[in-house]
């Protein structure tokens, strides 16, 4: 590989340093890369243009490319800005709506209690149903039913009642329903929960061979135990008589 020659025609020794800065430090003007200038010169020469025109054409193309990249970047930043503004606007709207609906929850509770006692009649029924329909259209949802699986994130347990046969905590009574808007819980459901009884295994106990004891074997042994107990009582009565 031949080394580059200097001005005197001799081979230059040592590393070759090429200035690839895009801005000329002396004039402050934009430099045109050598490859682009050569390509533009070749294109201009093929089209019959002068080298000066070719250099101007290459510089213009580079400026167009830079402006296009700037425009794409600004467009992406504006799209992200619009998404952030829309998200913040939705959050503010949801928060303000939740504050208003919280004040209406006691009225909704009264309507629900009146319905449970068959007292939602006449004009009161029309007003109550209209109010429930209005808050439903605003996104308010009621939740909390009997036999629902207990979820501590949306339920408030007033008390835990141990019940045999219960392996997973579940709701056995709803004291006060809960309400949500979207994914925001504006009031948790207040419930009574049934849980696993103390001392009760979650799974049936296994026998010595790894299998659960059969119900038939337990039932078959029950009469034998009863017979043994009866014989023991008879023997004790005979001894007392003697």
UniProtKB/TrEMBL annotation:
Q: Which InterPro entries match?
A: GrpE, GrpE_CC, GrpE_head
Which residue positions does the secretion signal occupy?
A: none
Pfam families tied to this protein: GrpE
Enumerate composition-biased segments (Basic and acidic residues): 17-34
Record keywords: Chaperone, Coiled coil, Cytoplasm, Stress response
The molecular function terms of the Gene Ontology recorded here are:
adenyl-nucleotide exchange factor activity; protein homodimerization activity; protein-folding chaperone binding; unfolded protein binding
GO cellular component terms, semicolon-separated: cytoplasm
Mind telling me which PROSITE patterns this protein's record contains? GRPE
Per the record, which residues fall in region Disordered? 1-54, 196-242
Q: From the UniProt record, list the coiled-coil ranges.
A: 57-91
The biological process GO terms on file are: protein folding
Localization annotation: Cytoplasm
What residue spans carry the Low complexity bias annotation? 38-54, 207-235
Q: Self-association or partners: how does it assemble?
A: Homodimer.
| Biological role | Participates actively in the response to hyperosmotic and heat shock by preventing the aggregation of stress-denatured proteins, in association with DnaK and GrpE. It is the nucleotide exchange factor for DnaK and may function as a thermosensor. Unfolded proteins bind initially to DnaJ; upon interaction with the DnaJ-bound protein, DnaK hydrolyzes its bound ATP, resulting in the formation of a stable complex. GrpE releases ADP from DnaK; ATP binding to DnaK triggers the release of the substrate protein, thus completing the reaction cycle.
Q: Which family does it belong to?
A: Belongs to the GrpE family.
Q: What is this protein called?
A: Protein GrpE
To which species is this protein native?
Answer: Nocardiopsis mwathae
């Amino acid at each position: 590989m031949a080394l580059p020659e200097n001005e005197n025609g001799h081979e230059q020794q040592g590393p070759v340093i090429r200035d690839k800065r895009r801005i000329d430090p002396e004039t402050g003007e934009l430099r045109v890369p050598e490859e682009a200038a050569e390509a533009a010169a070749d294109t201009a020469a093929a089209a019959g243009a002068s080298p000066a025109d070719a250099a101007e054409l290459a510089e213009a193309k580079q400026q167009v490319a830079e402006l296009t990249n700037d425009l794409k970047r600004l467009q992406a930043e504006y799209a992200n800005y619009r998404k952030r503004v829309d998200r913040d606007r939705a959050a503010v709207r949801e928060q303000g709506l939740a504050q208003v609906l919280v004040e209406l929850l006691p009225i909704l509770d009264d309507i629900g209690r009146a319905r449970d006692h068959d007292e939602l009649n006449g004009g009161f029924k029309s007003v109550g149903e209209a109010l429930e329909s209005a808050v439903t259209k605003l996104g308010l949802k009621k939740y909390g039913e009997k036999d629902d699986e207990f979820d501590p994130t949306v339920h408030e347990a007033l008390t835990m009642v141990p019940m045999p046969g219960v392996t997973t905590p579940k709701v056995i009574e709803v004291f006060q329903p809960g309400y949500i808007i979207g994914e925001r819980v504006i009031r948790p459901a207040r419930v009574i929960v049934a849980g696993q009884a103390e001392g009760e295994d979650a799974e049936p106990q296994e026998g010595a061979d790894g299998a659960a004891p059969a119900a038939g074997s337990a039932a078959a042994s029950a009469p034998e135990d009863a017979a043994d107990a009866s014989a023991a009582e008879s023997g004790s009565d005979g001894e007392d008589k003697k």
